[in-house]
Amino acid sequence: ERYGGNLDDLNSKGKEELFNKTLELVNSREYHVTEVSDGIFGLGLGGAVPVRSIVSRGLRSLTGSNSDVPSPWCINDVTFARPGEDAYPFRGDPALLKPTHMIHSIVDTGTGKVLSPTSFFAKLDDQPEYVGIRRPDDDGYELHQLSPFSFQQDCLVVMTDGSQGQTLPLKGASVDLFTLDAQSCLDDLDVTLSRLKQVTSDEVLLGGIMFSCNGRGPSERSMLRENMADASRFKKYFPDIPCLGFYAGGEIGPAALAGNRNVYQRGKACLQGFTVVFALFIVPVIEPGSFHVDDSENNVVNFLESHFCKPRVL
Where is the FIST C-domain domain (predicted)? Predict the structure, then answer.
């Protein structure tokens, strides 16, 4: 459609005509609505808007540690092996395998008592689901889910992703064992969102998106025993901030940690389970500066004529 006229037309009849032609154009198009029950959903965003990401899982330590009281257990003897080396515990195509840490013994830093991984696990009242590794400079425990392959020849095998951070030496690193626990999940989410509210107190928030595991909701029949537990808690701490999201069978985001103090997480993205990943959009801070605006009569008239008076393609 093409429209040409003068400023007077646009201020009266022209606007109505332009609106009607646009409405006619929209109504003449066929729109197809398709319900997709099995697929991949993506969200693309543009612009220089800062994004803050947080991740919460919530685990209960089986040694009684927390963010204020670290685990007394440290790795005493460990071997690092790459695929194809004699010490590597698995066989297969080296291109498909990752380097591993094989933990031979663990020491109680308080008593000096040394235990094998098997003896260490035997001391626990509950069955652990994750082993946490915390190097001296780490913020929180790096989590590795346990599996039937985690024990090889009385060694606790920690499979890495091959990245530089995960292949650093483990000798002397703190170690803890964790299990999923509903109350711990809710407590961790409360702590995380409370910290988030504090660190964003001087910022203006645009909104947020949430990706939560379908094991966490939305029904109260989930492990958390609350309707929309993650979304409801976000609303509790940010009642005026719009939030969009959904539940999924796997969440992509920064790797969940245990006992971390920094609320923001970035990098180390992975597909993980039983987490909730939030992304907050922040109003960017624009540094003040000086701008020259030419609002002279001739410049304004030239702008209006060039944008509104000449034929334009809609």
Answer: 99-255
Residue 174 domain boundaries: 60-180
Q: Which residue has the higher pLDDT, 300 or 251?
A: 251
Query: What is the mean pLDDT of the segment spanning 167-184?
Result: 92
Question: Which burial class, exposed, middle or buried, applies to 71 when counting CB atoms under 10 A from its CB (0-12, 13-18, 19+)?
Answer: buried
pLDDT in tens, 47-62: 677 888 899 999 999 9
Residue 302 lies in a domain: no
| Domain of residue 246, CATH code | 3.30.1330
Of the listed ranges 8-12, 55-59, 151-155, 194-198, the one predicted with least confidence:
8-12
Q: Clarify whether residues 195 and 145 are in a common domain.
A: no
Please report which residue ranges of 229-295 form alpha helices under DSSP H.
229-237
Same domain, yes or no: 197 and 169: no
Which residues are CB-neighbours of 115 under 8 A, at least 6 positions away?
105, 106, 107, 108, 123
- Please identify, among 160, 180, 200, the residue that sits at the C-terminal boundary of a domain: 180
Number of domains in the chain: 2
Per-residue pLDDT at 115 exceeds 90: yes
CA distance 57 to 270: 14
pLDDT of residue 137: 86
Distance CA 132, CA 159 (A): 12
Establish whether the linkage from the previous residue to 288 is cis, with ω within 30° of 0: no
What one-character-per-residue DSSP string does 194-221 give? Answer: HHHHHHTTTS-EEEEEEEEETTS-SSTT
